Amino acid sequence: MAAVNDRPPRGVAVARYELRASADVLDAMSASYAPLDAADLDRALRVLAVCYRAPVFALDERFRPARPRDADADVEAIDIVLQAM
Question: How far is CA 66 from CA 29, 53, 63, 85, in A?
Fold first, then answer.
């Protein structure tokens, strides 16, 4: 593990995505680890954006977050990213 800001890591963060995520999310996450090539990174971002677009509405419906924007604004932001690609 690499040091951040000249400080050595103190532990290992374990998210256990492989146990909690859907197959689509796991595939998108795997695809997102692209080489440092602009076209590959764009493809990875597109896969992630498409994958996470639908859950935005579901999370908004389920939890009704107290924030100044709504799910429509979040999805619009994702769509702007997708259109720019």
Answer: 28, 20, 9, 31
Give the domain extent around 30: 22-84
Listed in sequence order, the DSSP H helices in the chain are 17-20, 23-32, 38-63, 71-84
Q: 10-42: string of b/e by CB count within 10 Å (b at 16+)?
A: eeeeeeeeeeeeeeeeeebbebeeeeeeeeeee
Number of structural domains the chain divides into: 1
Q: What is the pLDDT of residues 4-23, one digit of tens each?
A: 667 766 666 667 777 888 88
What's this model's pTM, rounded to 2 decimal places? 0.54
Does 14 map to a domain?
no
